[in-house]
Structures are given as structure tokens and as C-alpha cells.
Write a structure and sequence with these properties.
Blueprint (H helix, E strand, L loop, with lengths): L2 E4 L13 E4 L4 H11 L4 H4 L10 E5 L2 E2 L15 E6 L5
Parallel strand pairs: 1-5
Antiparallel strand pairs: 1-2, 3-4, 3-5
């Protein structure tokens, strides 16, 4: 099963400067593990020790925020697109 992952510029140093990756996983948690196998060191930038997404990152599956779907248990299927979007704050 192939899932397309869109990687923001800030994390591309872990992906050999690739903005788009093809990985696998039946849910977001498994996708994190798959990304770590392909790009060592990236998982610690994506999630905390409990496996939950870091609070300064937003993750979307096919443009839907995983916080409203199922968090890291959000199911993935072949052809899905996962976007990793850094949170932006300002004042």
C-alpha cells in the first residue's frame, strides 16, 4: 500500500531534500514508523515519546485534519495523501 507524504521544507533535511515521499502504513502511527525506516531521525521531529504528533505540527489526510478523524489511529488506504504542515503563529 502506497501513501504519499508531503514533507515541509523544514523537515526535508531528513528526507534527502525530497518534498514528496511514498511510504506505507494502515494508520498514521504506522506511517510514522515507515517514515523513520526510510528517513532515520524524522520520527522524533514528528511525534513525542508517546507517539502523538508534536503540538507544533498539523497532519492532514486528504485535506482532513487528523485531530477530527482519529488522531494517530486515523486509517490510511492506498493512494491517500498525508500532508505535514508546521503550525504558524504570530502576533
Amino acid at each position: 500500500m502506497a501513501v504519499t507524504v508531503l514533507v515541509p521544507t523544514a523537515l526535508q533535511k531528513f528526507t534527502n531534500n525530497q518534498a514528496v515521499l511514498e511510504c506505507s502504513g494502515t494508520n498514521i502511527a504506522e506511517l510514522f514508523d515507515s517514515l523513520e525506516q526510510v528517513c532515520p531521525g524524522i520520527k522524533s521531529r514528528l511525534c513525542n515519546a508517546e507517539g502523538q504528533p508534536n503540538r507544533f505540527l498539523n497532519l492532514y489526510v486528504n485535506s482532513e485534519d487528523i485531530r477530527f478523524l482519529g488522531g494517530t489511529a486515523t486509517p490510511l488506504k492506498d493512494g491517500d495523501e498525508v500532508s505535514i504542515v508546521p503550525a504558524i503563529a504570530g502576533g
